[in-house]
Amino acid sequence: MTASAPGSPKPTAPLEPRRGSFGALGDASAASKGANSKATLSDLRAAAALVHARMAPTPQHEWPLLRERCGAQLWIKHENHTPLGAFKVRGGIVYFARLVAGGSRPSGVICATRGNHGQSVAAAAAQQGLPTTIVVPHGNSREKNAAMRALGATLIEHGEDFQAAAEHARALAAERGWHMVPSFHRDLLLGVASYALELFDAVARLDAVVVPIGLGSGACGVIAARDALGLDTEVIGVVADGAPAYALSLEAGRPIAHEVSTQLADGMACRVPDVDALAMLKQGLSQVARVSDAQIAAAMRLLFECTHQVAEGAGAAALAAVMQLPRLRGRRVAAILTGGNVDRDVYARVLQES
Asked: Where are the beta strands (DSSP E) in the chain?
C-alpha cells in the first residue's frame, strides 16, 4: 500500500468530456437557489475547519493490488474511516454548528434517512443537546437503526421507501413545531465537501473523481471543491440501476421520479431527485454511470480482497463504475468509498457469492 502523496506519472491527455455534458433542466430557476450559490474556497475552508475540529481527515490510499485489478492509478478515499463510518457525519457537523450559531435553537429536530444521514443528524443534534426523531422506511438496515438509537435518537418506521419516510417526517415536524433537517442543503454540502478538499490537497493532477449519488450532497461537494480550486478534474456520478432517478432526470433535462428496486445500495435508493442537486450536477458532472447490484457486490468483494476494507453497497458503487469504464484505464482516478455501514448478514452473503 502506498500513501496518498502524488507520484510522478508521465503526462496524459485530458479526459473528455470533463463537465457540463447535460442539457438545461426544465426548472431553470433551481440554479439560482441558495443551495446552488457558488461556494468560494474560503467558504469551503471555513466549513472544513468546523469538521476538522470534530474529526481527523480520512486517508486516501493507492492500493497496489487494486490498481493492478482495475488498470488505473487509483486512489480510494476512505470515508468508511470517519467516526460514524460514512461521509455524512461531515455535513451534520457544519449544519448544526451554523443552525445554533445563527440563533435558531428548535425544541427538537426531525429527519428522514436510510441510515448515514440519520446518524449524522443524531450525533450532531446530541452535541447541541437537541432531541431527535428519525423516520426510516420499513425494512431499513437493522444495524443502522441500532446505531441511530445508540446516538440518542427516537426512531419511527414509516412507508416503503425513503420518499414516504421523508413525507411523514415533514408532517411530524409541522405537527410538533420541530425543525426538519433536509437531506440536501448548502451547509450539508459544504460539510461533506471537506472530504473532497482533503483528497485534492493530498493527490495532485487527478484526471477523474468517481462518486456515488444518493440525494446528491457528496457529488455536489466534489464539484464545489473542484471548481473552487480551479481544477480540470472530471467528476463522474454513479447511480444504481435499481435507483436511476438522477440519471434519467439528467438525460431528460427535467426531474423524473422512478421507483427504487436496488436491494444492496440503500444509500443510493432515491425515488424523487432534489431539484437543487440536479441543477448543480447538471453543471458539474461529465457523465452518470449506472451500475447493477451484481456489479456493486463484485466491487464490495474486490475491496475486501484487495484492501481488506468493508464497504456498504453505496460505498462500493464508485469502484464498480471504475471497473465498468474502460476510458479510465491508465488514468489518475479517485473513487469515493462513501461508507462501510453494511449489515453483517448482508455482507456475509455478498462475500460468499462467487
From this structure: 60-61, 73-78, 109-112, 132-136, 154-157, 179-180, 208-212, 234-240, 287-291, 332-337
200, 226 contact by CB (below 8 A): yes
What is the domain-level CATH number for residue 138? 3.40.50.1100
Rounded to whole angstroms, how far apart are CA atoms 264 and 330?
A: 29
Which pTM was predicted? 0.90
Cα separation values, 328 from 20, 67, 248, 286, Å: 18, 12, 23, 13
Q: How far apart are CA 291 and CA 321, in angstroms?
A: 6
Residues 6+ apart with CB under 8 A from 259: 271
Nearest to 196 by CA among 5, 66, 48, 40: 48
Query: pLDDT by residue (tens digit) across 304-336?
Result: 999 999 999 999 999 999 999 999 999 999 999
Residue 262 and residue 244 in contact, taking contact as beta carbons nearer than 8 Å: no
Range of the structural domain that residue 295 is part of: 28-87+186-352
Dihedral of the CA atoms 310, 313, 314, 319 (nearest 10)?
70
> Residues 204, 289: one domain?
yes
Band the pLDDT of 104: cuts 50, 70, 90: confident
Q: Which triple of cell numbers denotes residue 352?
A: 460468499
Tell me the per-residue pLDDT of 157-212, one tens digit each, with 9 for 90 and over: 999 999 999 999 999 999 999 999 999 999 999 999 999 999 999 999 999 999 99
Please give the Cα distance from 4 to 55 (Å, whole number). 19
Question: Which among 334, 329, 323, 325 is positioned nearest to 297, based on CA atoms?
Answer: 323
- Grid cell 453543471 is found at 283
